Amino acid sequence: MKVKRMRLLVWIVTFVLLLWGTLWADESWLRAKQVLVFDSQSVAAGGSATSRKIDLKRTRGYFSLQYVLTGDGTVTLSYELSNDGNIWIFPSTCGDSFPLTGLTKTSGPGGDGKDIVPVKPIIARFIRFKVTETGGANGVTISARLNYQ
């Protein structure tokens, strides 16, 4: 009887260890990932462009946005959130510096139109970014990547 119990116990422990290893072997959700938000997107004077929606389902809530601006225009860079993918809202309360206003080709720490900024949205299922040319006289081109974990 003790041998049967011991075999059963060994079998249960083996099964649990195998299951644990299978569940936690894929740690890809822990690694930082990147998505292209804007790829040399031209924005005419007074115009705007909106990125595709990005699903935040498998993120841990850590985000940064790297952008590069060229052209003589001035832009505002913002994001919108949605829980259903249809109704988009810029939250009235957020924990970051968005919207970023008055950005030009000389913005950023190097004065070259390049920067990387934290993005701290409130909890939502989807995010998308919007760039609006606010100077009204000249267009811009923007490239941006969202890094997330």
Q: How would you describe this structure to a colleague?
A:
With 149 residues, the chain is an alpha+beta fold. The chain has one domain: Jelly Rolls, CATH 2.60.120. It has one helix and nine strands; from the N terminus they run αβββββββββ. The strands form two sheets. Strands 2, 3, 5, 6 and 8 form a five-stranded antiparallel sheet that branches. The longest helix has 24 residues, at 2-25. It is elongated, with a radius of gyration of 23 Å. The relative contact order is 0.30. The mean pLDDT is 87.
In brief, what are we looking at here?
With 149 residues, the protein is α+β, with helices and mostly antiparallel strands.
Helix and strand sequence:
HEEEEEEEEE
User: What is the CATH domain class?
Assistant: Mainly Beta
Mean pLDDT: 87
The computed structural class is alpha+beta
| Gap between N and C termini | 51 Å
Gyration radius (Cα, Å) is: 23 Å
Would you give the CATH topology?
Answer: Jelly Rolls
| Relative strand content | 35-45%
Strand runs, count: 9
Outline, from the CA principal axes? elongated
**Count of helices?**
1
Can you tell me the number of structural domains? 1
Low-confidence stretches: none
What is the CATH architecture descriptor? Answer: Sandwich
Main sheet makeup: 5 strands, antiparallel
Percent helix, as a range, is 10-25%
